[in-house]
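Standup notes
- HV: blocked on the assembly model, inputs below
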Amino acid sequence: MSDPLSSGPQSAEDRLIANCFRPIARHPGALGLTDDAAVLRPPAGHDLVVTADAVIGGVHFFPEDASDMVAKKALRVNLSDLAAKGARPAGFLLTLAVPKLLPESWVALFAQGLGSDAELYGCPLLGGDSVRTAGPVAVSITAFGTVPYGTMVRRGGARAGDVVLVTGTIGDAALGLDLRDAVTAVKRMKLDSRHQYELVRRYLLPQPRNALAEAVRVNASAAMDVSDGLVGDLGKLCAVSEVSADIEVAKVPLSEAAAAAVALDPAAIERVLTGGDDYEIVCTMHPDRVEAFHEAAVAARVPVTAIGRVQRGEGPPRFLGSDGKPMQFKQPAYSHF
Amino acid sequence: MSDPLSSGPQSAEDRLIANCFRPIARHPGALGLTDDAAVLRPPAGHDLVVTADAVIGGVHFFPEDASDMVAKKALRVNLSDLAAKGARPAGFLLTLAVPKLLPESWVALFAQGLGSDAELYGCPLLGGDSVRTAGPVAVSITAFGTVPYGTMVRRGGARAGDVVLVTGTIGDAALGLDLRDAVTAVKRMKLDSRHQYELVRRYLLPQPRNALAEAVRVNASAAMDVSDGLVGDLGKLCAVSEVSADIEVAKVPLSEAAAAAVALDPAAIERVLTGGDDYEIVCTMHPDRVEAFHEAAVAARVPVTAIGRVQRGEGPPRFLGSDGKPMQFKQPAYSHF
């Protein structure tokens, strides 16, 4: 990516950049991908929020997934981090490692998906690097956002008495992954095909909550995005904030499809709460802030639901079942290792 | 990297981050690697310069290379881009993809090398991501630098009449790679072992010219770092600047070791000029600037050498041999594809 122009005959890399990526790098700071670096000027009085997330073929997506969806997922998992931190997207760098036998059409469709999301979320491609690998496709994205000085929402601000809220619905992507992953899961769940489709779609294509970022920044005491499962991620937020929390599992918002899956197999609630890949926001805020946050959420057309309270103490959050007792989980969070 | 704390039993990823990377992430904006994102505040009136470069096992380094050297190389190739753009390092994000069977000691030594260079170059670790891969180790780094508004040195500013200069010596790393790569090369070159060692060391560990960044920013009309070979990279700079250049090959600075290699095998000059991995700076400047630049270079203890002139016209730069005729190259530049 950093070597787009060649004085001699164009290399395959040069062609790839010129044909696929230059057309989507329209931000002036990208310098048409003709330089070694890009220029980013945060607005005066603003911090830069920087985050990096990679997706790897065979780990985070299936080799047969359409490459425009892979590109969108790679960008959206980063956009989701920006949203949870209350930041407005400012641009991103892409590092793409591709195996030799990958057809150029894969990359062309990838760039198409990337460009379309860059436009949709106002997060332009600024530059990056493209390399060969003997391994699977690896997509590493570094995304930039901006917030007024000192206002990035951290994990570490939750206080006892704060309300815990989540956006959207929880568990769909994890159930969707199960459905893709194993025919047995499909059989076990006996879901109708519309519900199956909806769950799989949530796994394939996250819907980051950037529309709610400003409301999170203004109202939340702490926030993060749910990527490794609500149980584990809220646990991390509580640990950094040195608090605990009580969550009423019955209040955790489920989609119609996930509710149907749990009705068919009550044990699926563990996957819902711990499976991850949700890319929703979990946040905490003073009770006085909840009404304003709800109003902002309605305006942004993002559903938000209060699911519990922050508690004094340092144990992991308790997820209370309908019997009022804390649930036990076999594997509280997705681990990459 | 973004998920360092766990409320439950620590995952292997959590341990890795806590033990290896948190100790080297001392910048306040890194938030102790306990958040989803890092905060970076460029000084008022400064642009941010952003660049990303990846190194892949089996492509950019050998699987048996010591992992502290791999880490240093991964960071230094990015620092070299910042230096060539006239930027002062501000920090970096790391994405590390590791195969399952990689021993934790590999990562520990990697982090040690990274931390030592982060200190040496004043470029702190701010955050990142760690993921599993079924492929080789992949290290992707995004580095940040700062320059006063609008002063990033681009490829596109060279003007006819400007002097072309390079830092350090050219070709060592390419010859060093040949020496590592094939026993035949060693035999052909018949180099003494000290020279061999010096060339291999230049391949293993680039010496980015960050000490000269400010002088480049103040004096150069255009600059880039030499990573894909002097011939190809100067060609890119000239193409973006819409100029050509005449280079006197006899003036291209060679180390004693490279000079010995070329004396043994005159054809090796093509590798010197086109092989890449130099991580030196090639820049152009108005003749009036050269003296001040030389003085700054002496102060920074970085050798700089004038090797030719920018010319009107748009053809690729001509590398003139001792007979005054342009040399012809079989492969003008390293291509990643």
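- HV (later): unblocked. Chain A touches chain B through 86 residues (CB under 8 Å). Residues 67-84 of chain A form the longest helix (18 residues).
- Next: hand off to the docking folks.
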